[in-house]
């Protein structure tokens, strides 16, 4: 059957990770949107990962904010904007410019970001604008500036394909930059010489392509890379000519690294001497080495030193800025890079200029013709919220970020928002924890509606184009900011006709008084007419005016750094003693991401397809630690620090090392009873970048005792879940809910209450087996099915979810269902591995057992892994696991 007709096809860019994939969005006559990869986009050449592929399913208007609100009541834009302008103006008048602040995000567009930064730094006159990039890229920015004199990423994605040694440090590329990972996978398949080393305390999906996995002790990266510098130096693997011509401070850096004593390095990193020697020798011998690093490096109290220790090894070997070589910090958010370009961080000025530099301040002020210019760095995120908590911030505007969930000491952040007299939140959804703290709520235009540019990890600027009308009274972020600026009396400087006008100004500023003195220059784009802006093809910077096409866009092959003497600076990094864990909080809490969710789930959390992969918050615990703590798989575990606690499901696995636990960052109060992991994370920051060490918090773990456990599938989301433990996720046709209660209660009455309008509830109890099951139907449709037990419930989640899609059942069949004897046409797929084709663990395992022994064989018989490819490393793991043992595959309650 032919589907609905396509009205238009729009080329745009994915709103999730920093890979920056091009998307073709086909808007259909029935209002739906079909999504595919743009084959012409140079980031992805047609590929999309699971999150990008599911974009069309996340555009629903459920929970959307449609109108401005003041103190919870609907208001007009005029009322809301006047109030925001008044309160900011009043605070500045009474308490000075530093009494107000903006906290923005790498998920707004460059044009939004430019306006926010201009208003705060040039017109309000404070640098109190910080961004969630502080939690993300700040250590890389600080490290780049210390080494290069500018925040420059020298390389391109092609370098990851053309290198012969790819070192991935603190990066789970397979799950976090999946399309880039697939490019690497393909390059490795095409070049058998290519080697991949993964440096991560944890075994991740990325290890599937690793020739060597160095599971180092948490935060021991500086010891590892200082050791590498010493090794390169002792092995004579240096590029003396490059060091001499283009750098300063080599001797100090080598002295600081000390001698390459393998025993000492092995002790500091916890790595085997043999593995260290292998890694060091590989690097010494391989000219074409790229070192990619991400949050295992940045999110650390030694993050900036980690960055510089890595960069030192590239400067010492002259492996920078040439094809297939270089240090490469991959960005997380779709516009982390754009935010850095406009100077969105509290310690930066616009266009990669430095706030401490009086010349730069003069250039920016002159260009903006602004009444003032911020003269000192503003408050960095963690300090900003501390200041708010102590009453120093009188008005705060939060835009496109959810700090009550994503900042460390997140309960303290909630307190800060309560303490701050005036909080403005611009968001697209009501279902975000931060929204609840707003005095004024501004409804923003979402992806698919807004229009502008983003810059990806390799400095490539791409257009996000609107394909849908603005719903309700939503407005883009740049408009909200400009309107407030105009109402604060700055009309002349903020009277923009649209994103194209802002982009032209931004591009012009990048070239203003530049003459090669600054890396960021896109002045060639300063004259784009609206139609040219609309048609802008993806383009990599630099683009100084007069630059010819086809010119080199890599940096630093021939030095020419952005320091005063144009030489790079080696940074003498010292190994710091690891942070103490101590007796009360003996475990190190590591946090991070899962494959199919984006941050606080406000968008990816909407689609059953993405929830199917992992549907419940969990903690990975090493078997030895679990045993010692009396924790079994699928128990509910409290993970606690002096700041706060979460209660999550235990996954007992050797993937984490002893003494460490891992909890994903995604779950919020919207979807679980107590799983905001940042409530636990300590607000300790790096001294240079101010970035929190979100990967290292001393914690205690303990099994929590419940008298009953439950799993339910329900047609509609219950109004309130009044139980001690719960976690909810969408599934096809309804919702899936995990529950547990401390006190005994009448569970039949409880489930009937939750179902509300179900008729003919059936009940089945087996006291010997210790279970109770209750199900209700509404006409022919299942309304809800509840599985209770005194232990964690051992029913297949995937099978139970499929009940919501099941056909009409006779009364007899309904009893069989409750007894867990499903009809033959309802087999248990097992936990979903391939989200595109909804193929489960059990199906893949069965196919492997039947002889499908490769990814392509699995693809041929099940389609699994043949669309977005995000699950390929997991399928490979099932195939690999088969040769070891296949019987562990149905794991109760664990994330499935
Ligand atoms: N699916 C998905 N993809 C995403 C995102 C998402 O939310 N979901 N978010 C995007 C964003 S904003 C970002 S910033 C990126 C982040 O991308 P990544 O940085 O790749 O992701 P994380 O899972 O945060 O952390 C990476 C790894 O660091 C390891 N690590 C912890 N401590 C250390 C250490 O001391 N040393 C080393 N070497 N490694 C350590 C962790 O075990 C973890 O596996 O992902 C982007 N892509
Ligand atoms: N423990 C721990 N904490 C972490 C991390 C970690 O690894 N571990 N990682 C950190 C990192 S790297 C990052 S980047 C942060 C991310 O953390 P956040 O930025 O807090 O997470 P998001 O869920 O992406 O929040 C984006 C918000 O903006 C809204 N939104 C979406 N589009 C728009 C728009 O166009 N306009 C407006 N106004 N709003 C919009 C969304 O609905 C959502 O509420 O988390 C950080 N926190
Ligand atoms: S890799 Fe996935 S999330 Fe990242 S930009 Fe591409 S499609 Fe979007
Ligand atoms: Mo990030």
From TrEMBL:
It comes from the Bacteria. Residues 7-63 form the 4Fe-4S Mo/W bis-MGD-type domain. This is Nitrate reductase. Its cofactor is Mo-bis(molybdopterin guanine dinucleotide); [4Fe-4S] cluster. It comes from Roseibium porphyridii. Keywords: 4Fe-4S, Iron, Iron-sulfur, Metal-binding, Molybdenum, Nitrate assimilation, Oxidoreductase, Plasmid. PANTHER family: NADPH-FE(3+) OXIDOREDUCTASE SUBUNIT ALPHA, RESPIRATORY NITRATE REDUCTASE. Belongs to the prokaryotic molybdopterin-containing oxidoreductase family. NasA/NapA/NarB subfamily. Gene3D superfamilies: 2.40.40.20, 3.40.50.740, ADC-like domains, BFD-like [2Fe-2S]-binding domain, Dimethylsulfoxide Reductase, domain 2.
């Amino acid at each position: 059957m032919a589907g609905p007709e396509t009205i238009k096809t729009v080329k745009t860019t994915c709103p999730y990770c920093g890979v920056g994939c091009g998307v073709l969005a086909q808007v259909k006559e029935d209002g739906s949107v079909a999504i595919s990869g743009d084959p012409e986009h140079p980031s992805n050449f047609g590929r999309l990962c699971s999150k990008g592929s599911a974009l069309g399913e996340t555009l629903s208007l459920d929970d959307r904010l449609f109108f401005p609100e003041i103190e919870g009541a609907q208001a007009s834009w005029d009322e809301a904007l006047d109030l925001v302008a008044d309160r900011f103006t009043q605070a500045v008048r009474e308490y000075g410019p530093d009494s107000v602040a903006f906290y923005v995000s790498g998920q707004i567009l460059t044009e939004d970001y430019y306006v926010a930064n201009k208003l705060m730094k040039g017109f309000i006159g404070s640098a109190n604008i910080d961004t969630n990039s502080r939690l993300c890229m700040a250590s890389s920015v600080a490290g780049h500036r210390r080494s290069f004199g500018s925040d420059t990423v020298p390389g391109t994605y092609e370098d990851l394909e053309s290198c012969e040694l790819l070192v991935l440090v603190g990066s789970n590329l397979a799950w976090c930059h999946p399309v880039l990972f697939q490019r690497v996978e393909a390059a490795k398949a095409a070049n058998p010489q290519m080697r991949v080393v993964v440096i991560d305390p944890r075994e991740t999906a990325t290890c599937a392509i690793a020739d060597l996995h160095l599971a180092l002790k948490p935060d021991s990266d500086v010891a590892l890379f200082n050791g590498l510098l010493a090794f390169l130096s002792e092995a004579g693997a240096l590029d003396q000519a490059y060091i001499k011509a283009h750098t300063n401070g080599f001797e100090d850096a080598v002295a600081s690294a000390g001698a390459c004593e393998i025993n000492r390095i092995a002790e500091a990193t916890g790595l085997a001497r043999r593995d260290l020697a292998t890694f060091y020798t590989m690097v010494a011998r391989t000219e074409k080495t790229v070192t990619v690093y991400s949050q295992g490096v940045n999110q650390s109290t030694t993050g900036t030193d980690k960055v510089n220790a890595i960069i030192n090894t590239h400067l010492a070997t002259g492996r920078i800025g040439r094809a297939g070589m270089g240090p490469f910090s991959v960005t997380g958010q779709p516009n982390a890079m754009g935010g850095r370009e406009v100077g969105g961080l509290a310690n930066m000025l616009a266009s990669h200029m430095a706030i401490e530099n009086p010349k730069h301040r003069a250039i920016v002020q002159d260009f903006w013709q602004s009444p003032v210019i911020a003269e000192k760095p503003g408050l960095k995120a963690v300090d900003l919220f501390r200041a708010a908590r102590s009453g120093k911030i009188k008005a705060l505007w939060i835009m496109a970020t959810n700090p009550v969930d994503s900042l460390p000491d997140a309960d303290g952040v909630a307190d800060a928002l309560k303490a701050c007299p005036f909080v403005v939140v611009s968001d697209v959804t009501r279902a975000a924890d931060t929204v609840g703290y707003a005095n004024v709520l501004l409804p923003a235009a979402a992806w698919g509606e807004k229009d502008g540019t983003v810059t990806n990890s390799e400095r490539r600027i791409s257009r996000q184009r609107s394909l849908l009308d603005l719903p309700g009274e939503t407005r883009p972020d740049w408009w909200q900011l400009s309107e407030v600026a105009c109402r604060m009396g700055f009309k002349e400087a903020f009277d923009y006709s649209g994103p194209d006008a802002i982009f032209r100004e931004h591009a012009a500023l990048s070239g203003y008084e530049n003459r090669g003195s600054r890396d960021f220059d896109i002045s060639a784009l300063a004259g784009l007419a609206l139609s040219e802006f609309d048609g802008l093809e993806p383009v990599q910077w630099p683009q100084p005016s007069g630059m010819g096409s086809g010119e080199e866009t890599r940096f630093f092959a021939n030095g020419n750094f952005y320091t005063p003497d144009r030489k790079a600076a080696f940074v003498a990094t010292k190994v710091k003693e690891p942070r103490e864990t101590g007796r009360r909080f003996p475990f190190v809490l590591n946090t991070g991401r899962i494959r199919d969710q984006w941050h606080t789930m406000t968008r990816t959390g909407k689609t059953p397809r993405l929830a199917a992969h992992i549907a419940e918050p969990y903690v990975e615990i090493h078997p030895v630690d679990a045993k010692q703590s009396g924790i079994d798989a699928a128990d509910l575990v409290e993970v606690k620090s002096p700041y706060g606690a979460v209660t999550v499901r235990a996954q007992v696995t050797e993937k984490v090392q002893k003494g460490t636990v891992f909890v994903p960052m995604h779950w919020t109060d919207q979807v679980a009873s107590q799983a905001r992991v940042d409530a636990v994370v300590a607000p300790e920051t790096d001294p240079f970048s101010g970035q929190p060490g979100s990967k290292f918090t001393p914690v205690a773990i303990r099994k929590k005792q419940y008298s009953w456990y439950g799993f339910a599938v329900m047609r509609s989301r219950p109004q309130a879940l009044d139980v001690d433990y719960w976690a909810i996720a969408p599934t096809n046709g309804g919702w899936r809910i995990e529950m547990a209660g401390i006190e005994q209660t009448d569970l039949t009455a409880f489930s009937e209450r939750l179902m509300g309008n179900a008729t003919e509830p059936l009940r089945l109890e087996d006291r010997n087996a210790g279970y109770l099951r209750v199900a209700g139907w509404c006409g022919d449709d299942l309304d809800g099915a509840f599985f209770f037990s005194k232990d964690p419930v051992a029913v297949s989640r995937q099978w139970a979810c499929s009940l919501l899609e099941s056909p009409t059942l006779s009364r007899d069949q309904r009893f069989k269902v409750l007894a867990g004897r499903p009809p033959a046409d309802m087999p248990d797929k097992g936990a979903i591995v391939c989200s595109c084709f909804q193929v489960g663990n059990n199906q893949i395992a069965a196919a492997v057992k039947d002889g499908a022994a490769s990814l392509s064989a699995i693809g041929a018989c099940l389609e699994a892994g043949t669309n977005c490819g995000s699950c390929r490393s997991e399928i490979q793991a099932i195939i690999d696991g088969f040769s070891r043992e296949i019987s562990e595959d149905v794991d109760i309650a664990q994330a499935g």
